[in-house]
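Severity: low
Component: inverse-folding endpoint
Summary: output formatting inconsistent between runs
Steps to reproduce: submit the following structure tokens with default settings.
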């Protein structure tokens, strides 16, 4: 969707639902479509994702963020927020449509079964495929490329990978905390989800 048109749509909807004193802006986020900044009374949309989205997805994102503004920062995605969202015409879903276009990161991962995912940052730790196993599993390790090329993953990654494979050889598969990549979130940064110390993740 054209950014100027998206901006006008946001302004109209914000005014309609009582946010005349809130400002609107675009940001550069790649993994969330919108953001409601209560401290600054500002709603922003990701410029790169807005360009990819159709009118319906942009409208849904704007209404999602307006509902956050109206419900207040303490409500997150709870029932109060959802009721507000539905009242103003949003779906009340937490995520954008999984079919909505997304921006791929330069890091591409493939598991032994051929499932793929991408990331924007270099994976700091070995990960296994969440579609093959919900828990970290050494038999479903993901192999990474950067812009299509196999590159060094770094000393820490290599050390951890050696330790994991050594443990796997010695014993049954270790039980480790799962890190999931929730690519559909509208306004949470998946990269910020903490993992337990020492635990590889799942992508
Ligand atoms: Zn897999
Ligand atoms: Zn939200």
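Observed output (run 2 of 3):
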């Amino acid at each position: 969707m054209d950014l100027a048109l998206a901006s006008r749509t946001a302004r109209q909807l914000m005014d309609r639902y009582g946010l005349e004193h809130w400002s609107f802006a675009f940001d550069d986020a790649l993994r969330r479509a919108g953001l409601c900044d209560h401290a600054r009374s500002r709603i922003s949309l990701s410029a790169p994702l807005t360009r990819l989205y159709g009118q319906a997805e942009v409208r849904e994102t704007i209404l999602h963020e307006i509902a956050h503004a109206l419900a207040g920062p303490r409500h997150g995605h709870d029932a109060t927020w959802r009721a507000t969202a539905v009242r103003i015409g949003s779906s009340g879903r937490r995520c954008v449509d999984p079919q909505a276009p997304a921006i791929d990161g330069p890091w591409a991962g493939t598991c032994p079964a051929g499932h793929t995912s991408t990331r924007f940052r270099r994976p700091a730790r070995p990960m296994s495929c969440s579609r093959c196993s919900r828990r970290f599993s050494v038999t479903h390790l993901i192999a990474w490329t950067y812009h299509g090329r196999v590159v060094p993953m770094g000393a820490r990654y290599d050390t951890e990978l050696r330790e994991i494979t050594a443990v796997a050889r010695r014993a049954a598969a270790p039980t480790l905390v799962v890190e999931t990549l929730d690519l559909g979130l509208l306004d949470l940064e998946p990269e910020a989800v903490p993992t337990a110390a020492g635990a590889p993740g799942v992508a």
